[in-house]
Amino acid sequence: MPERIAVIGLGYVGLPTALLFAGAGVDVLGVDINPELVAALEAGQCPVEEPGLPELLKEVLASGRFRVTQRLESRDVYIITVPTPLDRETGGADLSAVRKAAEAVAEVARPGQMVILESTVPPGTLNRLVRPIIESRVPGLDYVFSPERVLPGRILIELPGNPRLIGADSPRAAERARALYATFVRGEIRITDPTTAELVKLMENTYRDVNIALANEFAMVAERVGVNVWEAIELANLHPRVNIHRPGPGVGGHCIAVDPWFVVERAPMVTALIRQARTTNDRMPVVVAERVEELTLGRGLGTGAGAGAGALKVGLLGLAYKGNSDDSRESPAYVLARILRSRGFDVAAYDPLVRRGALPNATLEETARGAHVLVLVTDHDRFREIDPVALRQLVARPVLLDTRNHLDHARWRAAGFEVHVLGDGKGRRAGIFGEGAGPAGELAGAAPGADRTRG
């Protein structure tokens, strides 16, 4: 008889996981402490903007294999997929939701059942935190750590298709978890121990963060030596053993912007490179803000920071941290908006996918109207459909700063826009940012203190 499972935490990963299990014929109880979320799901309303997810939700609700509740019930398997945000005070993982989930399991669990932790956590969390909480009340359960590996916008493709890692301390728990995930996972399923699996999840996202930091540093170098970094990266990646990522306005999301700190938390004395990569990527919204200042204050539109309050306007295109996703968690767009406002700019933002977030989401027309600079922050495909001719009639100055090298620049220039691209040193060297700005001064022997992207 198939095992009956409970998925605790119905967010960006928990909900798709629960629905895929239910779609594969498993009896699934979805559990979340948010009453509004539970009510919406019961009504067939999908809160996550993900292709195919609303249809799957309606299908499994109709089948009776998926039920939603705020109160956990006893099940054969408990899958914990609750958030693990960064604790801004300690710089480590906030495991309060994991602790509460483990305590809830301890209240209803019975010997012989299984607990699977999917939440991203510092290495050792399953054995140091989750297991002791439950075992202190109910001994004899199996424990597994099994992280997801998904890309927003492709979750229903990648959850079944990507390799699945199972970290278990016993062969019985490993095979039991393997059989459970095999109900919908088509990718290879590999077995290891829990702590290794926890570290592997963090390593995957830390690798990407460090690589993006390298790309961002290359972008800054390219601007100083008069090179287009996008062309340079494309050429460098022709090497069969080189894979440089893409630069941008910063790193967001719950994974890449957060997970590296969980590694630093466990080994702070030997993770200097990881820490520096985080610092580099967190610095990028400042770099973009400085570009905006060069395109406004540097053009004589203001007399200094704050002088343009209520007059100089920046229109941000994109609030999501990643293109073609509605996920705006830890998005650099919000950091950029705060920095620009602190420097005296009026800021409006438009994102066609983000329904709610930390910044009001205006319409495209409201965002463009009266703007002195438009800044492409998120590489949504929909932004390529924007008519720059129509926006030319709305903006105060036709200036575009593309931080993702995403738009058709020839089309925007044909519409009368002055186009700038983050990492395009050829443009900066040609004096596009104003006489004396950019690498021209540095190449002439400017002092190190003139480097405005540092410090």
From TrEMBL:
The keyword NAD applies. InterPro entries: 6-PGluconate_DH-like_C_sf (IPR008927), NAD(P)-bd_dom_sf (IPR036291), UDP-Glc/GDP-Man (IPR017476), UDP-Glc/GDP-Man_DH_C (IPR014027), UDP-Glc/GDP-Man_DH_C_sf (IPR036220), UDP-Glc/GDP-Man_DH_dimer (IPR014026), UDP-Glc/GDP-Man_DH_N (IPR001732), UDP_ManNAc/GlcNAc_DH (IPR028359). Its EC number is 1.1.1.22. It is an enzyme of class 1 (oxidoreductase). It holds the Pfam family UDPG_MGDP_dh_N. Keywords: NAD, Oxidoreductase. One of its GO terms (molecular function) is oxidoreductase activity, acting on the CH-CH group of donors, NAD or NADP as acceptor. It comes from the Bacteria. Residues 315-409 form the UDP-glucose/GDP-mannose dehydrogenase C-terminal domain. Gene3D superfamilies: NAD(P)-binding Rossmann-like Domain (3.40.50.720). GO terms for biological process: polysaccharide biosynthetic process. Belongs to the UDP-glucose/GDP-mannose dehydrogenase family. PANTHER family: UDP-N-ACETYL-D-MANNOSAMINE DEHYDROGENASE. This is Nucleotide sugar dehydrogenase.
